[in-house]
Specification:
heterodimer; A: alpha+beta; Jelly Rolls; B: mainly alpha; 9 helices; 68% helix
Chain lengths: 377, 200
């Protein structure tokens, strides 16, 4: 802090009161206050405000808080009802894929729980705690696996799939049981390929939980805890508390700490569409959010109807009219679906239109995913 | 056996108030150590959430929960090159800011929450000092966030100007200036209650 030789010192009143100035600065302020009635009055005012602020008290949280936190660390948060209607469809898609894959998943199986997951070194020197990964290493519950800038590793997820760990990544095994396999991704990137019934494999990130619905995907987390999910096969549900996005193959979704998943989008959408969607999901202010929504609706292609369909439930009623009108232009609503009904989020109409939309979205997907789309939507 | 933690009811000292061994054990996933960390910081985290979110107890509980879950999931990233308290309070401030943004987005009338909470508490009848504290809370809630945060970090968390600057990512001079303006604003809003402060 700089204190001018001949200036008034009122800007330094609080720092002086809190003894945050150097001794020469304090002396200078004290001397000035003696001779300057204006600064003295402002000092008294700041001091009075400081005395009021000292009355702020510590408040104890309710007793139920710790049990809730402990539960939150162990158990996935309750699923959102908002997009529950998508889950059965996604699960159905998974079952179709599994059938096509040789009925492997309908065979009775026991998850291999022998002291954690097997780890293979793919390059460099990945570490479990302070130990380097050897040919027979296993990752136990609670243990961290860390790769540096030149190392990679592969985890065998019991006997249901595998996860490749990219460089500069830190993961921890949280759960290894018949009913749940759960990994935590603190930072970096992983690629998961899971061949298991849905809702068995989870990845916790700082900004949400990725729930496998039978799929292959990559998930990356940056140092701020933001994550990016890119689905290459099947479906993945992203969740944070009541906010949920179910992401199909070919699509991606960003999550932010404290907010959760944004709106899913197809990765071949225009840059303008994607950046505006991000501004809408994680706005700097309400004005920019409204403007971003206008751009998203304007830039949307028929294939982006998925994104617009999600947006219907994430906007207020007046914004919903904008989204609906654009969606209806891109994909004509089926018989029985009315504008008023959709603006009120009528569940039957939502479901009917979703069925109609599925036929349209399937067109430009790759062949494997296309079949899935058609089956599901 | 748990390593002893230094916990104070007074604003914490500027140096580390949590043993580094507790943090190391948290980084290894030790649940008992995390419980100890929670006990050491819960009041301060909850208080700052409540004061910054307009006195809404439910919202403050949710935010406190989020902060500690984030803390547990990210503590592996804490490298010790910044003070733990600074790192934690940065997490608290960011989580509260995110929640404020969400409230603005989804519940435009959230500003009224504090008034409701205040009225409810007033009806129960409290001591004069409690009433004065609530007046201070309300006046604080009316300040711009950039003036409110330094006051919260100074008086609830007991941070120095330098530490506040680290948490808010601004210079010590900026902290001094904002605190000064915040104090003056409180003085203007609460000046009529000066008699209730008692002698200096």
């Amino acid at each position: 802090m700089k204190l001018g030789m001949f200036n008034h010192v009122s800007d330094f009143s609080s720092a002086y009161w809190h003894n945050e100035l150097t001794p020469p600065q304090s002396r200078r302020v004290a001397e000035h206050l003696i001779g300057c009635s204006r600064c003295r009055a402002e000092f008294e005012s700041a001091k009075l405000g400081a005395r009021f602020a000292e009355r702020l008290e510590l408040v104890s949280p309710p007793d139920f808080l710790w049990p809730r936190i402990a539960a939150g660390l162990n158990v996935k948060t309750a699923p959102s009802r908002r997009f529950q209607f998508l889950k059965p469809l996604a699960i159905a898609a998974t079952l179709v894929l599994l059938a096509g894959g040789g009925l492997l998943f309908f065979l009775p199986r026991q998850v291999d729980q022998r002291s954690g997951w097997q780890v293979a070194r793919l390059g460099g020197t990945p570490r479990i705690g302070s130990e380097g990964v050897s040919d027979k290493s296993r990752l136990g519950i609670g243990q961290w696996l860390e790769t540096d800038s030149s190392s990679r590793a592969k985890l065998e997820v019991a006997n249901i799939g595998n996860v490749e760990i990219d460089p500069n990544t830190r993961v921890r095994l949280l759960q290894n049981s018949d009913r749940e396999q759960r990994l935590e991704l603190a930072r970096g990137r992983l690629s998961a390929r899971i061949s298991a019934p849905p809702k068995l494999f989870f990845v916790n990130t700082p900004s949400g939980v990725a729930e496998d619905l039978g799929c292959a995907y990559t998930l990356e987390v940056d140092d701020a805890g933001n994550s990016l999910l890119r689905v290459t096969l099947g479906w993945v549900a992203l969740q944070l508390r009541e906010r949920e996005s179910v992401v199909p193959a070919g699509a991606a979704c960003v999550t932010r700490p404290g907010i959760g998943p944004g709106t899913p989008y197809f990765e071949d959408a225009s840059e303008t569409f994607r950046s505006s969607l991000s501004q809408f999901d994680f706005p700097a202010d309400q004005l920019s959010q409204a403007s971003a929504l206008e751009i998203v609706t304007r830039e949307a292609r028929p294939r982006d109807a998925m994104t617009l369909f999600y947006l219907l439930t994430r906007v207020n009623r007046s914004e919903r009219a904008l989204v609906y009108d654009r969606l209806a232009t891109l994909v004509a609503p089926p018989d029985g679906v009315t504008r008023d009904g959709m603006l009120n989020l009528n569940p039957q109409m939502m479901e009917r239109w979703q069925g109609k939309l599925g036929l349209t979205w399937g067109r430009s997907l790759d062949q494997g995913a296309k079949k899935t789309w058609k089956k599901v939507w | 056996m748990l390593v002893q933690i230094v916990v104070t009811q007074e604003p914490p000292p500027s140096n580390e108030s949590i043993d580094w061994r507790i943090i190391a054990r948290c980084q290894q996933g030790d649940r008992d150590a995390f419980r100890a960390l929670f006990e050491a910081y819960k009041d301060r985290v909850y208080s700052i959430a409540m004061y910054s979110l307009g006195g809404d107890e439910q919202l403050a509980s949710d935010v406190t929960q989020q902060v500690f879950i984030k803390l547990m999931t990210r503590i592996g990233q804490f490298r010790g090159d910044s003070e733990f308290a600074t790192w934690l309070y940065r997490l608290v401030v960011n989580t509260c800011r995110d929640e404020q943004r969400k409230q603005r987005r989804w519940v435009p009338l959230a500003d009224s929450i504090f008034m409701t909470a205040t009225v409810k508490q007033s009806q129960t009848g409290q001591y004069a000092s409690k009433e004065l504290a609530r007046h201070v809370q309300r006046a604080l809630g009316e300040l711009k966030p950039k003036l409110r945060w330094p006051i919260l970090l100074r008086y609830v968390e007991g941070l120095s100007y330098e530490e506040i600057g680290k948490v808010l990512d601004c210079s010590k001079g900026t902290v001094a200036s904002r605190l000064n303006r915040g104090h003056s604003a409180l003085s203007r809003k609460l000046g009529h209650l000066r008699d209730q402060l008692g002698p200096e």
